[in-house]
Specification:
The complex is a heterodimer of chains A (1101) and B (172). With 1101 residues, chain A is of the alpha/beta class. Chain A contains 32 helices and 50 strands. In chain A, strand 17 (381-385), helix 13 (389-400) and strand 18 form a beta-alpha-beta unit. The relative contact order of chain A is 0.11. Chain B is globular. Classes of the chains: A alpha/beta (1101), B mainly alpha (172). The A-B interface holds A 797, 841, 845-848, 883-884, 908-913, 924-928, 931, 933 and B 30, 32-40, 44-45, 51, 53-54, 81, 84-89.
């Protein structure tokens, strides 16, 4: 038997002015089961609550309906009332006739009808409600606080002082937040540091606070009272247990990066602490990954590292760093194709760094080659066939590991193509021999005049492993008629003879056929031997594989290049070549190499008279003799595994041109290095680990926007060039090298030069540290992630990007601060301003940038800054451009008065644009109180940039599944009554993550949040809503559809019973699973289909 | 704007609603009178009587007669500088169009605009295509044009613009 009581609230006149309450009462009284119906002005007030209790007793009610506002507002209130009268609180239903009725309708009759329908539905439903029992769970007595600005610091101290454990997580390396960047605070003008730093050090010392700086929240699971948190501790590359904050390291660091703490004004080192008062007082290294230059280098040379060392004049250390990855600095500084320079990010700005020239400088600078470090010798012996760059590199890296290395060279002298293929005017012999000597000094034995005929014999002779690096020394011929005539020379043969000082006779007219570096080398060599040289190439300059630098040099030297021409036949006289029949080509479709295929033009044949022809169309390895041991491709190259360079024969590896075909020196070196690693792994029976360091993407901004051309090497005079084999380029002097190295943008942050390691007595620096994940448990969470200042670049008309003297409020704050880049002096572009203009509402109250809200602090921080500027530079003229003045806090209006009294001029206007006229900035406005246009002159314009939601807060928001309000800030549970709570029980908000606010409000909110968290902790348990899903075990098929639909991970599959299981503690009662279940096996308590359908039916009929 | 004191009871307090109902006028009441529009306005730079901020203010205050009868509404060069920079998204250029449309409905048209409309009605475009123009087109390989206004007449008739023009003729 139902005994239902209905209580209708007028909500002042909110409901009664639109709904005829009297009429509704009459209607409700005659509904089945209703024994009483009453109304009252404020049902939620004390007399209203008493009215309900009285009627429950008087009429012995077993169900109660309150028709008033939204359940989100007062369901909990009325459940408590019902409970206190002895009824189960779930035998109560709330009918919303305010938000869903009176507030959205104007017609009283129709609104009254709707109220009746809503109530009839409620009566129908309430009859079917069943009593439910609330569960309680215990609370972990600790709190996680995310963000250690003033809000997080205050909340931490309050909770820790009450005796509870606090985990304070901060993503920056120090606590302090935005407040630590401020100079003085309005309206009292206390110094921000003076009031903040004592709190910071208290946090650092507090036994109940576990400080987790440079840490991010990765994941949060669990529920109110019992959260499980995963935090990611980012690597600092400095062992904080060892670091004592002595600051010996920073002076040794060659890398300057923009100083974020000083709002990008000034620089800091790659090893740094956020600011001198940082808590914890520890240093860290800003590593952003592999810079593009290093990533582009096949040998993986730490380019940024040695350039950074050059910049500080540590040339010896730079060379040492280079030699870790490349034993050929002198060679590569001259003839490397430098893919690093192609990727150099400075090219986007002006021109790439002259990396190769800098490398040559450090190699040439070395007077007495440093003897390589002695390493512990091993027993194993390694044989290397071929002493070119690949073979010698492999030997070098193995010798560094202590192996006994013997390099077998067939020729008279070591060096391979470096010695016999590259002309001396590009790579002088002593430059090559310096590198080879260093390699020999490292413990590599080179046996020249020692051709190998049998690879397997080497293994039989006791070599544990063999690296075959025989290069590609065999000329590829054209197959054209007349190729065998006397005077038709092979390029390799020609260059070898010249480089070996053998007698070479060539005629006056020489044609070189080909477009690669070898062709250019042959042409320039011929020129030096006194010939008139023409290069014949079948495509255009654009497709030419030779380096642009070499092509330019050849043209400078008077060498003709005949593009789009191909030989058809070599004509001879007396068995000696006398001319070439050529045909003109045009470019057709793309071929396999991605270049346009040359196509002959019929009838375009022509004749060129010559005395000599040099063929330089390509080379291949001389590998026929290897066929019985190894797999050889149809191009004559050796087949290997691309990663391990293994030939398939155990212990035999191959690399360089012998594998790739004619390729670059640095790729040959890279193969040698790879082979050494693979051989080491093979001998030690370890797995070959290929290092894969992440490439930098978060590049530092350039420190200056000044464009600067790259330095180039000088060359010897042209007339001397074409007569001798003297090296053409003369190299950098010290001054040029220092200047050029300064252009580096430090793309990877830390350059890994290791200077800091040398300076740290405590050996705290460790480049190998990695992310660590820690797990924490806590009962409550306070989110205090703060704000970002509005990005002034978005307001293009204020030209922040264009002029250095348009600055943001935060930048001025750093300039005013004694700990700032100018130690508190207002100097911009080297000058003290005489006229300063401040602009209000930059990025706030501005629809054009999508921010409708007021940032609440700008009016006052500008007033404060205007005062401080006047204080420091009394003669300065200060104009503040405002639209509405908001001085709403305690002492604020008085402060505003004071600033005006000091002579700061307030003009009511908003600028249309800022531009430069002569020395001055012009701020264009209409003084709206005068109705006149004014061009205001300024030396400095300060943009009163507002507050926007912090970028990283979004990640926390997603992890916690919190809501945000329309302005993008985190949403509180109720704007007035629950301003620090969120919709998620146990999660609280403090500070600017919830909305813009000043320091007093932030601290107040932090105290509110900490007290809310503590009241839960002190109580020791929390109630869990009994409105959860239940499972019909018979109907459930274990399909998992509900698991996917559940946001809270409350449903899991019982693998034994093959049905789903509901975790009632995790379930939020949203009902998503119940509607998703295809077999209706899930029923949400308190919202059963029967209860809901009866409600709907009552409305429909 | 008249001299002396503004008599509040003479103002049309409903005028602002009429403007917000006109396409382009919807955001009128957002204006917080910062003057960004006026400072951006190239017309204001040479002609003091044209001040978008003041026009918006007068419209909100209900100074209907002053707004509709003045020359200044018609002076807007539709360069959109104010609209681009307005921090309150008042869409000022469109708002000026809305005011012009209301003025026309009230039978108030600037004589310059009116005579342009007459030209369009006569020639189908703002000026007459003469032999010279057609010869030039011929040289460029373009077909010659006729001064045919049949379609325009239809448009004018169906939109009712012809009546306004006729009325203006009468007044002349």
């Amino acid at each position: 038997m139902q005994r239902i009581g209905v209580f209708i609230c007028h909500c002042g006149i909110n409901i009664s002015s639109t709904v005829d309450v009297e009429d509704v009462i009459h209607y409700v009284r005659q509904l089945p089961g209703v024994v009483t119906a009453e109304d009252y002005t404020y049902m939620c007030s004390d007399p209203g609550q008493e009215l309900i209790r009285e009627h429950i007793k008087k009429f012995n009610l077993n169900k109660v309906i309150v028709a008033s506002c939204s359940p989100a507002m007062h369901e909990v209130t009325f459940r408590e009332v019902v409970k206190s009268a002895g009824l189960n609180p779930f035998c109560f239903e709330m009918a919303n006739i305010r938000e869903q009725c009176s507030w959205v309708h104007l017609d009283k009759n129709r609104a009254t009808d709707k109220a009746k329908a809503i109530l009839s539905a409620a009566v129908s439903r309430v009859g079917l409600l069943e009593p439910l029992e609330e569960k309680t769970v215990s609370v972990t007595p600790s709190v996680l606080i995310i963000g250690a600005g003033i809000a997080g610091i205050q909340a931490s101290l309050d909770i820790a002082n009450a005796g509870y454990k606090v985990y304070l997580v901060e993503k920056e390396p120090s606590i302090g937040g935005r407040m630590s960047q401020l100079d003085k605070t309005f309206p009292t003008l206390d110094c921000s540091a003076c009031i903040l730093t004592p709190k910071m050090s208290e946090v650092g010392r507090h036994p109940n606070i576990e400080l987790l700086t440079y840490t991010e929240v990765a994941d949060i699971e669990g529920f109110v009272g019992n959260f499980k948190v995963k935090v990611k501790r980012k690597p600092t590359y400095v062992d904080w247990d060892k670091c004592n904050g002595c600051d010996d390291c920073t002076s040794s660091c060659p890398v300057d990066l923009p100083d974020e703490f000083n709002a990008g004004l000034g620089t800091r080192k790659a090893i740094y602490r956020l600011f001198p008062q940082a808590v914890p007082n520890k240093f860290l290294i800003d590593k952003r990954g592999k810079p593009p230059c290093t990533a582009a280098c096949p040998a993986g040379v730490n380019v940024q590292g040695y350039i950074a060392l050059i910049k500080i004049g540590k040339f010896k250390e730079a060379l040492e760093l280079e030699r870790r990855d490349n034993p050929f600095p002198s060679v590569c500084g001259r003839v490397c194709t430098h893919p690093c320079e192609i990727e150099c990010r400075r090219a986007e700005f002006d021109e790439p760094i002259s990396i190769a020239s800098l490398k040559r400088f450090i190699a040439d600078y070395e007077k007495e080659p440093e003897r390589p470090r002695n390493v512990e010798k091993r027993m194993e012996r390694i044989a290397i066939v071929g002493s070119g760059p690949s073979g010698l590199s492999c030997g070098y890296f193995l010798a560094l590991k202590g192996y006994n290395v013997t390099v077998f060279e067939a020729m008279e002298e070591p060096g391979g193509m470096l010695r016999y293929g590259i002309p001396r005017f590009r790579l002088p012999l002593d430059a090559l021999m310096r590198d080879i000597k260093y390699i020999e000094d490292s413990g590599v034995e080179i046996k020249t005049k020692s051709p190998i005929a049998d690879i397997s014999k080497l293994q039989k002779d006791g070599f544990d492993s063999v690296y075959v690096a025989i290069g590609a020394h065999q000329e590829i011929f054209t197959g054209i008629e007349g190729e065998n005539l006397e005077g038709v020379l092979s390029c390799i043969e020609f260059l070898r003879k010249v480089n070996s000082n053998e007698e070479v006779e060539i005629g006056k007219r020489v044609a070189v056929i080909g477009g690669g570096n070898a062709a250019l080398d042959a042409a320039r060599t011929s020129k030096r031997l006194g010939a008139d040289v023409t290069i014949l190439y079948r495509r255009t300059r654009y497709e030419m594989p030779a380096d642009a630098k070499e092509i330019d040099a050849a043209i400078e030297e008077g060498i003709k290049i005949e593009f789009l021409s191909q030989p058809v036949k070599f004509n001879g006289k007396d068995r000696k070549v006398s001319g070439i029949e050529l045909i003109r080509m045009k470019l057709g479709e793309l071929d396999a190499s991605g270049r346009r295929r040359p196509v002959p033009i019929p009838g375009s044949e022509f004749l060129q008279e010559v005395d000599n022809v040099i063929l330089a169309i390509g080379q291949s390895p001389d590998s026929d003799w290897l066929r019985k041991y190894l797999n050889i491709t149809k191009w004559g190259t050796i087949e290997v595994d691309g990663i391990s360079l293994n030939t398939g024969k155990t212990g035999i590896l191959a690399g360089g041109d012998a594998v790739r075909g004619p390729s670059t020196i640095v790729e040959a070196i890279s193969d040698g290095k790879k082979a050494a690693l693979a051989i080491d792994a093979y001998i030690n029976k370890k797995e070959l680990i290929v290092e894969k360091k992440a490439i930098a993407v978060d590049f530092p901004e350039p420190l200056s926007d000044e464009k600067k051309e790259r330095c180039l090497m000088d060359t010897i005079p042209l007339d001397e060039r074409i007569k001798s084999f003297r090296e053409v380029e003369t190299g950098f002097d010290e001054k040029k090298a220092l200047e050029e190295a300064k252009r580096c943008l430090n793309c990877g942050g830390c350059s890994a030069c290791e200077e800091c390691m040398k300076s740290c007595d405590r050996e705290a620096i460790n480049y190998e540290l990695a992310d660590e994940v820690e797990e924490l448990e806590c009962g409550a969470i306070i989110v205090a992630t703060g704000f970002d200042p509005f990005d002034a670049r978005i307001k293009k008309e204020y030209a922040y990007n264009e002029y250095n003297n348009v600055i943001t409020g935060l930048e001025l704050e750093r300039l005013l601060s004694a700990s700032g880049p100018t130690t508190g002096e207002i100097i911009i572009d080297g000058k003290t301003p005489k006229q300063i203009v401040f602009i209000h509402c930059v990025g706030s109250r501005d629809e054009s940038v999508g921010n409708e809200y007021c940032s609440r602090v700008c009016c006052m921080f500008i007033a404060k800054q205007a005062h401080l500027v006047k204080d420091k530079v009394p003669e300065v003229e200060v104009t503040v451009l405002y639209m509405d003045m908001r001085a709403f806090g305690k002492g604020y209006e008085e402060f505003y008065d004071r600033v005006r009294m000091e002579g700061v001029l307030y003009r009511r206007c908003n600028p249309s644009e800022i531009y430069r006229r002569g020395e001055k900035l012009i701020v264009k406005v209409e003084d709206t109180l005068l109705g006149e246009l004014v061009d205001i002159e300024a030396d400095v314009v300060v943009l009163g940039t507002g507050i926007v939601p912090r970028k990283e807060t979004e990640e926390i928001r997603k992890i916690l599944k919190l809501s945000k309000s329309q302005d993008g800030f985190l949403l509180e549970a109720h704007p007035k009554l629950r301003p620090v709570d969120t919709a998620l029980d146990g999660v609280f908000l403090a500070g600017c993550c919830q909305a813009p606010k000043d320091i007093p409000d932030t601290v107040a909110q932090a105290k509110g949040a900490s007290s809310s968290a503590m009241s839960m902790l002190t109580r020791g348990f929390v109630n869990i809503e009994p409105v959860v899903s239940t499972l019909d075990e018979v109907a459930c098929s274990g399909c998992g559809t509900c698991e996917v639909s559940c946001e809270y991970g409350a449903l899991t599959l019982d693998t034994v019973k093959k049905i789903m299981v509901v975790n009632e503690v995790l379930c939020k009662g949203c009902g998503a699973c119940a509607s998703a279940c295809p077999s209706n096996a899930i029923i949400l308590k308190h919202y059963t289909p029967k209860q809901l359908l009866s409600q709907i039916e009552a409305i429909l009929y | 704007m008249g001299e002396g004191t503004i008599i509040v009871k003479e103002l049309d307090s409903g005028f602002k609603y009429r403007v917000t109902e006109e396409p382009g006028g919807e955001h009128l009441m957002r204006c917080y009178a910062c003057g960004t529009c006026t400072a951006s306005c190239p017309v204001r730079a040479i002609e003091e009587s044209f001040n978008p901020r003041k026009i918006i203010r007068m419209t909100i205050l209900g100074m209907k007669d002053e707004v509709l009868n003045s020359d200044f509404v018609w002076l807007c060069s539709t360069c959109y500088a104010c609209q681009e920079r307005c921090p309150q998204d008042v869409v000022i250029t469109e708002l000026m169009n809305a005011l012009k449309n209301i003025a026309v409905k009230e039978g108030i048209v600037h004589p310059g605009i009116a005579s342009q409309a007459q030209e369009i009605l006569k020639f189908g475009r703002v000026y007459e295509i003469d032999d010279f123009a057609n010869k030039k087109r011929e040289k460029l390989g373009l077909p010659s044009l006729k001064s045919d206004s049949k379609e325009v007449e239809t448009i004018f008739k169906s939109t009712g613009i012809d009546k306004y023009i006729a009325k203006l003729e009468e007044e002349k």
